[in-house]
Amino acid sequence: MIILNSMKNNSLLLPFMFLTFIFFSTSLFSKEYSQFGLYLTDEDKFDLWGSYNRGEGAVTDESPDELIYNHTCLFLSINEENLDMKKGPYTRYKKVNKRKLEERVKYLSSKSFDMSNCNLD
Fold first, then answer.
1. How many CB atoms lie within 10 A of CB 96?
2. Within this chain, do residues 5 and 58 fall inside the same structural domain, yes or no?
3. Are 60 and 72 in contact (CB under 8 A)?
4. Both 33 and 50 in a single domain?
5. Contact 120, 102 (CB under 8 A)
């Protein structure tokens, strides 16, 4: 009797373990996929960066440090060589506002933000 009960429990346990394994494997895979499924081109980054320069939600020197960091790093992470139509506006902004960008990088570095992935040529 005990052997039959344990066999019955094991026969249910094995499919349950298998289904649990499949569920967690696919959920981890889908989470991994969503992390890498979003790819922004440099033109997309430039458009996104520009969208934070207008209206009430514009990033200013009075914005929270995290927002200033994200905004500055996003701009500096753009590879100018990959811009086709938008290379001119990007270059003009960078040239005109180089001092402001340098000040923001210096300010954020002093606040212990990791600026190693942000480049200012």
1. 9
2. no
3. no
4. no
5. yes
pLDDT band at residue 28 under the 50/70/90 scheme: very low
Render pLDDT for 60-94 as a digit per residue (tens, 0 to 9).
989 999 999 999 998 888 888 999 888 899 888 88
Q: What is the mean pLDDT of residues 39-52?
A: 88
60 shares its domain with 98: yes
Query: Residue 117's closest CA among 73, 83, 81, 82?
Result: 73
Closest residue by Cα to residue 114 from 85, 75, 78, 72: 72
Statement to judge: residues 54 and 102 lie in one domain: yes
Count of domains in the chain? 2
In order of 36, 94, 102, the CA distances from 106 in angstroms are 31, 16, 6
Structural domain containing residue 21: 1-38
Specify the pTM: 0.62
